[in-house]
Amino acid sequence: MAVYGVLLPLVFDDVFDYSFDGELNIGQMVLVSFGKEELVGVIYKIGKTAKIDDKKIKPIKMVFDLPPISDELFSFIEKVAQYNLAPKGMVLKMVLGQTSNQLPKQKVQLYSLKIKNENLDGIRISSGRKAVFDFFNDRTEAEKDVILKETGVSENVLNAMIKSGFLDKREILVNEEAIEQIVNLSNKVELTDEQEKAAQNLVVKVDNGFSATLLDGITGSGKTEVYFEAVARALELSKQVLVLVPEISLTTQWLKRFEKRFGVIPLIWHSEVPLKEKAKTWKAIINGKAKVVVGARSSLFLPYSNLGIIVVDESHDHSFKQESLVNYQGRDMAVLRAHLERIPIVLSTATPDLETIVNVEEGKYDIVKLRKRFAKAVLPEIKIIDIKKDKPEKGTWGVSFITPTLVDELKNNLKKGEQSMLFLNRRGYAPLMICRDCGHRIQCPHCTAWLAEHRISGELICHHCGFRMFTPKRCPDCASEDGLTACGPGVERIAEEVKNRFPDARVEILSSDITTNYKEISNVIKKTQDREVDILIGTQILAKGHNFPDLTLVGVIDADLGLMGSDLRSSEQTFQLLSQVAGRAGRGEKKGLVYLQTLYPDNLVLDAVIKHDRDSFVDIEKNARLLLKMPPYGKLAAIIVSSTNCEAAETTAYMLGKCAPRMENIMTLGPAPAQLHLLRGRYRYRLLLKTAKNVNIQEVLKKWLSMVKVKSNVRIDVDINPYSFM
Length: 726
Ligand code: ADP
Ligand code: ZN
Ligand code: ZN
What we know:
The chain is of the alpha/beta class. It has six domains: 2-96, GIY-YIG endonuclease; 106-174, Arc Repressor Mutant, subunit A, CATH 1.10.10; 193-276 and 290-370, Rossmann fold (3-Layer(aba) Sandwich); 381-426 and 490-623, P-loop containing nucleotide triphosphate hydrolases (Rossmann fold, 3-Layer(aba) Sandwich); 429-488, no CATH class; 635-720, Alpha-Beta Plaits, CATH 3.30.70. Helix content is 29%, strand content 25%. The longest helix is centred in the first third of the chain and has 14 residues, at 71-84. It is globular, with a radius of gyration of 30 Å. The protein binds adenosine-5'-diphosphate and zinc ion (2 copies). Adenosine-5'-diphosphate binds at residues 189-192, 195, 217, 219-225, 374, 547.
């Protein structure tokens, strides 16, 4: 019996020893028992790794008939774990996608003959039965469907033959297989000169090992058409293609475009894909039958057998950053994977983040630019509305949020028969309910956060943990019957105002909560495209990637949302979001007009947005970060200590604070109660580590964390280069 170290999809870095009667190779997938569970693991080491009694070593239960995990993927697992201070097992978990992916699931009925053909001499049988006997002349076992198809007999014949003892039936489980994707590369779109040059630049890279390229083009310049050409080259070389997209923008619109170009719908991978589909897709990926996969950040970890290019669409988007289980920045990890696989990666965006811009400046990434909008489309004109001077007027429905100027523009646009869009990055009806009689505000029982009112569903919902309850009729504190009042606007409330102001307009809301399912999102988008919507009101879902050629007016209800945040990236994110939203207008032949409602008309970020002046925004942002030595000019890491027991979390946090590293080029902050002190029932404390760029921040963290003993009811999460500081 040989012993193997098996890496399991659990929160461990270590491997576990199992025995097997036979030779196995590194990377092979196996089934083992662990405690009461059965788990899929990967052979990681050959030979014993721990000092345990041979007799206690459990046997490997099954070896999967799947290609082994490649060396490149192994290095990827190790480097992702190392970089993000995560257990290797948790990274493996993402590679496996779902433990059950590997397990056979589909029931197949196999039939075999109990009596040999030659023993039938002298027995009279029907022609149907005869056909079945003949069918089994040169085989011993077959699936029901195959028998039926080849013999032409009905199922009744088979059943009767079982009854009379001629046939045996048994059921087995097999892997469900996806069919191989066949691509068609002949539908190339005619590109403009600028697009063609950019495309050729990317195409050449597909044959030349690792490269990272920023595809930097203004909204509507045709970045998708351009990177499609690089995708086509990879497919031509029979390589696999991975396109990472922000989850929310993965809509039928994009998929249709893809299908039109490549004659095949890409395999889709994100949290809402049903498990059964995922299992099929996973297998198609590892077996090489999948040619193109489009997915959210988690699709980066799948075991591609022959990856040829990675594209990160809307690469500035914050949804590539994961902040649960393993904290990682998907875009950065995608660059790492491309490097290890020795393939090109394309980062496509109209508003690159500062990290990416600096990587270009330092020569680590190449850059390809698109400066013109496609065809006759020009960039929209953006204007500022000072809410203080241009006050929204109250109506029969109550408080208003749309300024008279914007109301007039909406009216004009309706008259012209053109489409408008109102943007407010707040779900629900109101972000908060407050009692006018006693001042009580309704808070989430599990988080330090207010519950938002959702009037369409009649609920109060926590946007942090998902807690929901029916909206109470009376104030929970003073029992007042008419005290509870909605405070501030969400998209539902804007829709209410719009419907009251323009009763004849066709209004739709697009928001991630009412429309968590893709069908509904696609539906509203399709309606908008088909011109069945006059005014579309939505959250940041709207900012991403959609193309509405007849949309000419965009109104941003609150351009200050996010500007006042104190986060490292709040200005950058606001600039990106507003530029993206503005970029939805005027994508067709008609010119677009955008209004930003604000309390701060002189704000520099807004000024850069209205002038389409990214460079000057980037300069402001660079100087601010350079001054404070913040990323990308320094490194940051957050430590989040949490527990359901507040005191336990606090004690651990303070112990960590006491032994904080004191060295040149290193600074620590905290501990302090997190802004979201209570989140999903856990009390949280934060510490922040800031170092110079040349410091190995992971090493510093490891040493630091090893100095404190952590009780089992306390969890420590590390977030390298955090995006959230809550
Ligand atoms: P971006 O991603 O840069 O915002 P898209 O790739 O979505 O831009 O292109 C914007 C619109 O212009 C899309 O409707 C697209 O189909 C169209 N388009 C861009 N380039 C071409 C082209 N060469 N031929 C035809 N349509 C194009
Ligand atoms: Zn009250
Ligand atoms: Zn909550």
